[in-house]
Design a protein that fits this description.
Strand content of chain B: under 5%
Radius of gyration of chain A: 19 Å
CATH superfamily of chain A: NADP-dependent oxidoreductase domain
Strand content of chain A: 5-15%
CATH architecture of chain A: Alpha-Beta Barrel
Order of helices and strands of chain A: HHEEEHEHEHEHEHEHEHHEHH
Number of strands of chain B: 0
Largest sheet of chain B: none
Number of helices of chain A: 12
Number of domains of chain A: 1
Helix content of chain A: 40-55%
CATH topology of chain A: TIM Barrel
Number of helices of chain B: 10
Distance between the termini of chain A: 48 Å
Number of domains of chain B: 1
Shape of chain B: globular
Largest sheet of chain A: 8 strands, parallel
Structural class of chain A: alpha/beta
Strand order of the largest sheet of chain A: 3-4-5-6-7-8-9-10
Order of helices and strands of chain B: HHHHHHHHHH
CATH class of chain A: Alpha Beta
Number of strands of chain A: 10
Largest interface: A-B, 20 and 18 residues
Oligomer: heterodimer
Radius of gyration of chain B: 17 Å
Shape of chain A: globular
């Protein structure tokens, strides 16, 4: 039987080749990339979200501080930056940072359309191109499934025109999973974005296996539950097994748990702090937890 | 349970306290030195409330109307809505309040103004305090001088001072305090998850003043 690239990647994601891949993934000390299932294009495990952190309005000093964070993100090998019109001024701030040369000309620009109106959706999408100062997005998603029946065909048209490379659907906070599964089953999408972390693991039941089965990439938002998981782990010592994963802090433990899931393509933590960014980006290196260690991580988290 | 509710509210909040303070600093910087006109306006209103008459009462409401329109357009619509998309609806509510103030200035009750109101020093003192209370709480909460929200320029101090002025004039029709109360509730819902004490205080201040004025009226 001859497999095409997509089928091969689906098998890999589904775990059929896990026995062969797992040692490689677990022992690697290099920066790890994962393939986008629909094309095989490889992207780093850690991207950057902009919810709250890049919404700083017109304040120049805060904008410049965010440009520093963005610039450092690319220095550390980052590629995917995710935003949305829902995030206030975040898209505008990203465009500002591009004019300050804080970003390379080519990177994985990811945004969303978020409105119940068809016509407003068209103008919102046009606004995103204007604000980001780009002619092509890496990924355009329908945010929180809002009016997806209208927006998705339009995004697929833009993809056919070459203005978008990938199309996806996003959700967060565990909302509308049944509808998302229905879309994943029946629509031709490249990515889903959803919430997954040590505390919110509902997607392991249905959505992550379905993504692997359908060859859909998975972007994970809220890896730290908007900082809530740090509050929960406050005062808890770093467990002994963390050193064997190259984890020096809780952020890396939480991120490695997420990106080591076979169906997950990348995680997009958001931060406005350079020190936190560096901690996050280190999670794309070093050994990754295998399935036994992942179980141990869950058990540890539930105990603390 | 309360912590869960606060966390749930926080999920809808698209900006940080740092961004909010940054917005105030940027706004103050943008309008300086023209914003100094608000001091002249404040002094003028204090003078008017100390000498109540039909004309002075009307001018007071007109000036307040200008303040609400300014804040609705330039602060909320032009600045705050860039951080918080839901704020754009409040821009129109503030402009509606400015129209209401002008319309109510021709209300029949205004003619009783000089008879009903007994101007005293404490009236002006309370109005003056209401102009300063929000900036004072902001300083105590760690805001820097360039991040303070002043009367006639920013919504919280304007809403609080409006309720105080109308109470001092003994003229508090429902149509004029509904929007300040709605605004203070809106401010509370985003200030609570932000941990912003000045914003959380606004509702308490306005509700207390309203109750005090209504009780005084009932007497």
């Amino acid at each position: 039987m001859q497999l095409n690239r997509r089928q091969l990647l689906q098998l890999t994601s589904a775990g059929a080749l896990q026995g062969w891949c797992a040692p490689l993934l677990a022992e690697s000390k290099e920066r790890i990339f994962k393939p986008i299932p629909s094309t095989g294009e490889e992207i780093p495990l850690i991207g950057m979200g902009t919810w709250i952190t890049f919404n700083v309005g017109d304040n120049t000093s805060l904008r410049d501080a965010r440009c520093q964070v963005l610039s450092r993100f690319f220095e550390l090998g980052g590629r995917m930056v995710d935003s949305s019109p829902m995030y206030g001024s975040a898209e505008d701030v990203l465009g500002y940072c591009e004019t300050r040369e804080a970003a390379p000309k080519q990177y994985f620009r990811t945004t969303k359309v978020w409105t119940s109106s068809d016509s407003e959706g068209r103008s919102q999408i046009a606004d995103s191109y204007r604000l980001w100062k780009t002619k092509q997005f890496g990924l355009f998603q329908v945010h929180n499934l809002v009016n997806w029946r209208s927006h998705l065909p339009y995004l697929l048209d833009l993809k056919a025109e070459g203005k978008i490379r990938y199309v996806g659907i996003s959700t967060s906070h565990g909302r509308r999973h049944r509808d998302l599964a229905h879309i994943m089953q029946n629509q031709d999408i490249d990515f889903v974005q959803l919430t997954y972390n040590l505390a919110d693991r509902e997607v392991e039941e249905r959505l992550l296996p379905l993504a692997a089965d359908k060859g859909i990439g998975v972007i994970v938002n809220r890896p730290f539950r908007r900082g809530g998981l740090f509050d929960r782990l406050n005062g808890v010592p770093i467990p002994d097994w963390a050193a064997s994963l190259g984890c020096e802090n809780m952020a890396q433990i939480m991120l490695k748990f997420i990106v080591s899931h076979p169906s997950v393509t990348c995680a997009i933590p958001a931060t406005s702090q350079l020190a936190h960014l560096e901690e996050n980006m280190a999670a794309q290196y070093g050994p990754m937890p295998d399935s036994a260690t992942r179980k141990e991580m869950i058990s540890w988290f539930e105990r603390v | 349970m309360i912590a869960d509710f606060k966390d749930w509210l926080g999920n809808f909040l698209p900006y940080s306290l740092e961004s909010w303070k940054g917005l105030l600093a940027h706004y103050n910087q943008t309008w300086w030195p023209y914003s100094a006109a608000s001091v002249v306006l404040a002094v003028g209103l204090l003078w008017l409330v100390f000498r109540p008459s039909l004309l002075h009462g009307r001018v007071t409401l007109w000036l307040l109307g200008i303040c609400w329109a300014w804040v609705g357009w330039f602060f909320i619509g032009d600045q705050f809505a860039t951080l918080n998309w839901s704020a754009r609806y409040f821009s129109w509510l503030f402009i509606l309040q400015s129209f209401l103030l002008i319309i109510y200035s021709f209300h029949g009750e205004m003619k009783k103004l000089s008879k009903k109101t007994r101007p005293k020093l404490w009236s002006s003192t309370l109005v003056f305090a209401s102009m300063l209370v929000i900036p004072c709480i902001q300083i105590l909460s760690g805001y820097s001088i360039n991040q303070l929200g002043w009367f006639a320029l920013t919504p919280d101090a304007t809403a609080l001072t409006t309720v105080t002025l109308l109470g001092m004039l003994n003229f508090l029709p429902t149509g004029l305090w509904i929007i300040p109360i709605i605004w203070s509730l809106f401010v509370f819902t985003y200030s609570w998850p932000l941990g912003d004490i000045p914003g959380m205080s606004l509702f308490l201040c306005i509700a207390t003043l309203l109750m005090a004025f209504k009780l005084r009226r009932a007497d």
